Amino acid sequence: MPENETAIRLGFFFGIFAVMACWELIAPCRRLTASKARRWTRNLLIVAINTLTVRLLFPAAAVGLALVAAQQGWGLLNIIALPQGLEVFLAVVALDFAIYLQHVLFHAIPALWRLHMVHHSDVDIDVTTGARFHPVEIVLSILIKFAVILALGPSATAVIIFEILLNGAAMFNHSNIRIPPRIDRILRLFIVTPDMHRVHHSVIKDETNSNFGFNLPWWDRLLGTYRDQPRLGHQHMEIGLHSFRDPDWLTLPRLLALPFTHDARDYPLNRESE
Hints:
274 residues, mainly alpha
């Protein structure tokens, strides 16, 4: 599987993206407030920039590091002998928890929140929002992931499965799709649903600082960061940040410069609301 990693990941990415994009057209949850063509152009250009940045800086990627860790015997799971299925399951769950903690960190530290504002500044939320991250945040996220892999020692197979699940979940739970409430209540016991994650993109601070999970919903429930529904309901809630309400202002150059030109405001977890 490791030798086909790129083809496998690209296949899942484009397949899930196409499904979510079509679902959004057929059964949208919310009426979009900004030009979809402009938003998609900006968001997908950011994806292209991030992809190029990662390829230039980290040609080996996480799977390569997992293979090196296995060869050297680095990491907890390379020390403890476990059945492959159990090892993969534990590794995927542990990696998901690490992503949850990382997400909380990017909301708690103002310097990191400045980078994460690019993701939250989107005035609508759809499948492309799931990949709208500042390049510096992407680089830092990869370095954190590398540190977790060295400490945990997951197999290359587990890392590939986790990467596919993470990318697929990000596109799914950011999608502007309508799921019947009864089905959503069942699904969110096992995965983060669009209705659950949409609360996280509310302009209201305590809603923004909730529902940090990307794939598994358990961490929010266990650690007290879970919020069931937005105050104003999904049809009336505002998406984005108070400071960035004009979608025409959010051009690609301004999005890339945003962390260095604007104050973190009152959104970070450790700062009181103004």
